[in-house]
Design goal:
Layout lengths: L8 E4 L5 H12 L3 E6 L2 H15 L3 E5 L5 H10 L5 E4 L14 H29 L2 E6 L12 H21 L4 E8 L5 H13 L4 H10 L9 H11 L11 E4 L9
Parallel strand pairs: 1-2, 1-4, 2-3, 4-5, 5-6, 6-7
């Protein structure tokens, strides 16, 4: 299927590894010019080289902290008129809510809610004027089924979900869609660190905790980042113009509910 987005321009956050890199790779394969963002220069440069080699696409790496005004300005200077935004940021630390002070909560809100809100604010009117826009926020399955040790993430990402529920309906008539992807258990470094944290809390080994988590997934395995990347690319396609304001759970059947 031709997604009809060749030649479009995209900004992808947290793209030096994991799910963000997978989304950038899938968009690049569709002929999208991607500006990829992460904080560490060496890592984002290496990711750019890998995406170029695999796809032949134009890739612009930007080393910036997307949670700051200066970081967002640097990204938008590199790609001033994006057609596609993939908001993606590493989650805040796991732990017990009794140990988190105000600063911890502000950092979580800034990283997993406000950064995406301000990126949407900075780009959506241009998309409206050009009559095309696709915004995908990579959140978490914890929005649907909260995870006890991820209280900071549960709260901040749910806040973004509420914001998107409203603004997505305001802009849909302009062929601008905003959706959230809720990844479940994907084989990433972030997932590994969360598994290690769960193992410590339950006094288990990492391998024991990993086996328990796999057993909870109906598919019997963790997801591959490329699988989420392809789903993201479809949401950015011309064919997906009638999908907006949705929270799309990709978890291999782990969530047991009907709705």
């Amino acid at each position: 299927m031709d997604f009809g987005i060749a030649g479009r321009k995209a900004i992808v956050g947290g793209a030096s590894a994991g799910l963000g890199k997978a989304c950038a790779m899938s968009l690049a394969r569709e002929g999208v010019e991607v500006t990829i963002v992460a904080r560490t220069p060496a890592n984002i440069e290496a990711a750019a080289d890998q995406i170029r080699a695999a796809t032949g696409a134009r890739v612009t790496p930007v080393a910036a902290d997307i949670t700051t005004d200066e970081g967002r300005a640097a990204v938008l200077n590199a790609c001033p008129e994006p057609d596609i935004i993939v908001n993606n940021s590493g989650g805040p630390p796991s732990g017990n809510f009794r140990d988190w002070d105000r600063d911890a909560w502000i950092a979580a809100l800034n990283g997993n809610m406000l950064a995406a809100v301000f990126m949407i604010k900075d780009t959506v009117d241009g998309m409206i004027a050009r009559k095309f826009g696709r915004i995908v926020n990579i959140t978490s399955s914890a929005v649907k089924a909260p995870i006890s040790i991820l209280g900071l993430s549960n709260g901040a990402r749910s806040g973004l979900t509420g914001f998107v529920a409203g603004v997505s309906r305001e802009v849909a008539k302009h062929n601008v869609t905003i959706n959230n992807l809720l990844p479940g258990d994907f084989d990433t470094e972030r997932h590994k660190s969360n598994t290690e944290a769960m193992a410590r809390v339950q006094n288990r080994t990492y391998e024991e905790m990993k086996a328990i988590r796999i057993a909870q997934v109906a598919a019997g395995r963790f997801g591959e980042p490329a699988e989420l990347g392809e789903y993201c690319a479809f949401l950015c396609s011309v064919q997906a113009g009638f999908i907006t304001g949705q929270n799309l759970l990709i978890d291999g059947g782990k969530y047991p509910g009907t709705f």
